[in-house]
Fold:
Amino acid sequence: MEILVLSNSLHTYLVIGALLFGIGFYGLVQRPTFIGMLISAELILSGASLNFMAFNRFLAPDPTVGQVFTLFIMAIAAAECAIALSIIIAVYRNYKSIDTEDVVDLKG
Amino acid sequence: MVSLFTMEGLSGLLFFGFIGLTLAGAVIATSARSLIRSVAGLALCFLGVAGLYYYLNSPFVALMQILIYVGAVCVTIIFAVMLAGSSELKQLTRRNGLVGPLSILASGILVFALAGLAVKTEWLASPCLVNRGTVENLGQSLLTTYSMSFELISVVLLVAVVGSLVLARHGRDK
Structure:
């Protein structure tokens, strides 16, 4: 049962990180609202931090570096989420919509 | 050779559970029609990622993942959906029909390239470790080596909180 020790190999985590990135990219292209795009951006960020944690566990000489980096990514993601949501609420107050195709005032 | 009914076998099985949780949550988050459901899928995905962090020898980061992402980020997004939410059903007719298949194709190529690169590369493990990466080591390096970034991130968070309050408050008096 070699498949049961999959949690001890670097490749597993890298492939999961790539899958999270790809799913997040798909959502970022395909979602028609700002909040949906924000959710997909969060998926991309968590794929990136999963990669950091995997390299930290298997390759790094100092196993605290990746953990510190992931904690910083979490703080930045929380700040980004707060700012983006208040921008979305301001856009909703002006346009009565959170649809990306309605906010086209600067389109030529 | 690991049998299913030993400690390693059961933990391997649980690991598959976490992988499934992560990927299913991510798929729900990107493809659900209503925004509330996709936020719930995002929370599922974050719980799965926290489980994967636990397998990567960092229980502290796993707890922080649950606390910050599931506890704060998802709740904030739900709050914004309640304030400004709409269904995504009406605008689907306006879109070009090629967007869905082309975005699936593009992200599939990205995943294939990234995963192929990750599997094919010969990763070199480091010959020795300077510490074990416990919570104690993490706190020490956070307050010695990375203390400047630690202070800067608190300034960034303060500015973000004040900025989001100003942005959301603007125009409310009218």
About this structure: Chain A has one domain: 7-95. Chain A has a mean pLDDT of 89. The first helix of chain A runs from residue 10 to 30.
